[in-house]
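Deliverable D2.4 — example input (structure tokens):
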């Protein structure tokens, strides 16, 4: 085991470069019916009374002003939801990539001893997420750990109507990061990193 700074790296026999399966990531977040998403966001604003009538003075009681502010809130909710979708899709691609990497490791005598058998999703597989970070994978502003956390939390991305405004405004990032940290810390110590110079793979935006 090599130790560099405060990190330990797994020693892999030989010196050859190991090619891993491509990481397939669906492109930027999109929905089939954006009008329906906007409608659901508007319903959240309305049902959770995000705009109290008391906030309006006599000069701002016009219906047009109320509708404008509600529309602004709905648009912000949709933007938060689209951010959630982007992270979830990246996380889904990473989780599937880790599964494929497991298969690749099992077919290699040099790599097979590296993986510990455990119940999926193996917390020790967070080393693959660290490998993505070490390889400086371009991720379009997506936080990789948060993305995997979102995928671990949601097997399928719920529609926007399932979320409260508190989740979309305040908890979106916290939930994903907390889920990832909880998962990754379940791995028994010591958790060693995969040496990035020994692996190569492609990232394919679908």
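Example output (designed residues):
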């Amino acid at each position: 085991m090599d130790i560099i700074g405060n990190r330990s790296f797994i020693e892999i026999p030989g010196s050859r470069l190991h090619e891993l399966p491509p990481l397939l990531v669906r492109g930027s977040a999109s929905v089939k019916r954006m009008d329906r998403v906007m409608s659901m966001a508007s319903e959240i604003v309305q049902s959770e009374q995000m705009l109290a009538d008391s906030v309006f003075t006599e000069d701002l009681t016009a219906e047009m002003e109320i509708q404008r502010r509600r529309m602004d809130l709905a648009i912000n909710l949709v933007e938060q939801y689209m951010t959630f979708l982007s992270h979830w899709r990246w996380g889904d691609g990473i989780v599937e990539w880790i599964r494929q990497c497991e298969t690749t490791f099992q077919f290699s005598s040099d790599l097979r001893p590296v993986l510990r058998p455990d119940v999926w999703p193996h917390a020790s597989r967070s080393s693959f997420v660290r490998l993505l970070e070490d390889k400086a994978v371009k991720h379009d502003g997506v936080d990789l750990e948060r993305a995997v956390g979102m995928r671990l939390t949601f097997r399928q991305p719920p529609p926007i109507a399932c979320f409260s405004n508190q989740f979309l405004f305040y908890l979106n990032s916290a939930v994903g990061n907390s889920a990832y940290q909880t998962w990754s810390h379940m791995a028994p110590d010591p958790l060693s990193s995969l040496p990035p110079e020994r692996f190569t793979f492609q990232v394919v935006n679908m």
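The radius of gyration is 22 Å.
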